[in-house]
Amino acid sequence: MTVINTSSAVSAQLSTANSKKVNGEEEMSQQAFLTLFTTQLQNQNPLDPVKNEAFVAQLAQFSQLEATTKMASSLETMAGNSQSDRLMAGAALIGKKVASPQGTGLLEEGRSISGMISVPYGADNVTLDVFDQDGNKVFSNSMGRQMPGDVSVGWQGYDANGERMPPGRYQVVATVESFGEKTLVPISSPATVKSVTYSPANNQLMLELEDGSTVPLSDVQRIDS
């Protein structure tokens, strides 16, 4: 008896004709797999047939792979929808003032710079220092002892000689003295949101402020109208 085994040839033809490109790799369709599976049954060696367990294992593996592929596709769709929803929600922040711990403040004509610092354990003394864009200290103020919690800080825009400083962005630094130690505490100063973008790198929304700087939404501590 002569046994003709054509499964290899059929497998190659079906793989070429019925596969599709997915991420640069060929993936066999369900119909092609079933056709190949049937061809293997028809052309197996009757003197040495493949065991039933092997066929069942092949079917189980293909079904599992197909289910995993569909699940991955569904998760990608959900992630895309979630990104769009977050971006639309973030768009509502445009035009609002947000407070983030950047340590900088924008001095506008006729206005002052205000912000908040957090001293959860209180402070023996809080010193507020203001620096211009060249790093020169233009103002310093000792605020004395502070109770635990959030402390409001502010600068009216005048230097140590009482001269009005020009509009622009200034670095505001608070030094907290507590239990004999000095700690620099970031200032949460409000700034108007100009635009909102999504950053795939850190998977969160980035807020562009009026001065051109950006801040992650996760760093925002307060939102004002």
Which helices and strands occur, and which strands form pairs?
Blueprint: H1 7-18, E1 19-22, E2 25-28, H2 30-43, H3 52-91, E3 97-101, E4 104-107, E5 113-119, E6 125-131, E7 137-142, E8 149-155, E9 168-178, E10 181-185, E11 188-199, E12 204-209, E13 214-216, E14 222-224
Helix pairs in contact: 1-2
Descriptive account of the structure:
The chain contains three helices and 14 strands. It has helices spanning 7-18, 30-43, 52-91, and strands at 19-22, 25-28, 97-101, 104-107, 113-119, 125-131, 137-142, 149-155, 168-178, 181-185, 188-199, 204-209, 214-216, 222-224. A hairpin with a 2-residue loop joins strand 1 and strand 2.
Order of helices and strands: HEEHHEEEEEEEEEEEE
Largest pleated sheet: 5 strands, antiparallel
Radius of gyration: 33 Å
Strand ordering within the main sheet: 13-12-11-3-14
Structural class, judged by helices and strands?
Answer: alpha+beta
Number of helices: 3
Mean pLDDT: 75
Low-confidence stretches: 1-25
Number of separate strands = 14
Gross geometry: elongated
Share of helix, binned: 25-40%
Strand content: 35-45%
Distance from N terminus to C terminus (CA atoms, Å) equals 89 Å
Entry keywords:
14 strands, 5-stranded antiparallel beta sheet, 3 helices, 29% helix, alpha+beta, 225 residues
Task: Sum this structure up briefly.
The chain is α+β, with helices and mostly antiparallel strands and 225 residues long. It is built from 3 helices and 14 strands. The strands form 4 sheets. Strands 13-12-11-3-14 form a 5-stranded antiparallel beta sheet. Strands 4, 6, 7, 9 and 10 form a 5-stranded antiparallel beta sheet that branches.
